Amino acid sequence: MSKPSSQPFCASSIIGTGSYMPEKVMTNEDISKFVDTSDEWITTRTGIKERRIAAADEATSDLASEAARRAMAAAGVTAEEIQLIIVATVTPDMFFPSTACFVQKKIGASNAVCFDVSAACSGFLYALQVARHFINTGNRTTALVIGAEKLSSLVNWKDRNTCVLFGDGAGAVVIRRAEEGTDASGRVLSTVMGSDGNLADLLKVPGGASFCPITPENVATRPNTIHMEGRETFKHAVTRMLEASQQALEIAGLTAADVALVIPHQANARIIGAIAERLGLPPERVFMNLDKYGNTSAATIPVALDEANKAGRLNKGDVVLLVAFGGGFTWASSVVRW
Length: 338
What we know:
Elements: E1 12-20, E2 24-27, H1 28-32, H2 39-46, E3 50-53, H3 60-75, E4 84-88, H4 99-107, E5 113-117, H5 123-137, E6 142-150, H6 160-163, E7 168-177, E8 187-195, E9 203-204, E10 227-228, H7 230-251, E11 259-264, H8 269-279, H9 290-293, H10 300-310, E12 319-326, E13 330-337
Parallel strand pairs: 4-5, 4-6, 11-12
Antiparallel strand pairs: 1-7, 2-3, 6-7, 8-13, 9-10, 12-13
C-alpha cells in the first residue's frame, strides 16, 4: 500500500450529530429459533448480543431522514441551509433515484445537491471526505453526510455465518466550513482512503444487478444476499484499518498516544480489540456499541459518534480517530479535533 501524500488543510467541522435505530430488537435468542446457533456462539465469536430490524414499510431513506433531522436539530440548522446531501449506503431504496434525493424530499432540503456513495462499511468516511472537498473548494458551506442501511433486506436468514452479524440503522452529521484561525470544534483534520478490487470476492452481494440479474432459474440460490469469507475478511480488515489509522494520524501531525477515543467500524469485537492493541490503546479509549446493534455497515461510525457525543465521551479538544473497512475491499480513517 503506497503512502498517501500530504493533504491541503480542509477547514470543515462537524457541528451536529444524530442517529436513528428502528424499534424492533432481534436478540441472539430470537435468531437461535430459526437457525442453528446460540447466544453463546454468537457472543463469543462476534461480541454481538442483539440488533435492530427495520419495519417492512421502513426504507433506508426513512432511517436516514430521521437521523438527518436529529443531526440538523443538534447543529441548529434548517433544511434550507443544507446545500449538499450525501448518503453512504449499499441498501438504497432503489437503484435510482438516489436515496439522497428521497431524503431531500422528506426533510425539505430544497437547496441541496444530492447523491449516494457506495463503499460498503467505509462509505460514511468516504462521504465525509467528498463533502470536505466540496466545502474546501468554496462551492458549498453546509453539508449533511449520512450513513444508512437496511441490511436486513440483504441477509440470508438461513446462513448462520452471516445472518447473526447485521442490523439496520442510520447516523448523520452536519458539517460546515470553519474559517481559518477560528477555534471551531469538531474539525476534521485528515482522511485516508484506500481500495483493493482484487479482494472483491471476500465480501459481496453477487446478484441483483447487471452482472447477475435475479431470474426464475437462480432465485432459489439467493444471490442477492450477503456472501462473506470470514477468515480472510478478518485478516485484511485488521491490516488495512491499522495502516489507515496510522497514516491519518501522521497527516494530522499526531500519534496514537494523542487519541482520546477511537470510534471504529462496529463489525466484530475481535477486530476492534486487535486494532486497539496494535495502536497501544486501552479498552476505555475505544468506543463500542456493536453488542446492541451489530454491524450496520455505513451507519456504524456515525451512529457510534452520535452516541459517544450524547454520552459525554467527547470533550472539547479531544482527538477522535474514526476508522472503517468494508467490501470492495475498501478502508478509510479520519482524525477529528472535537
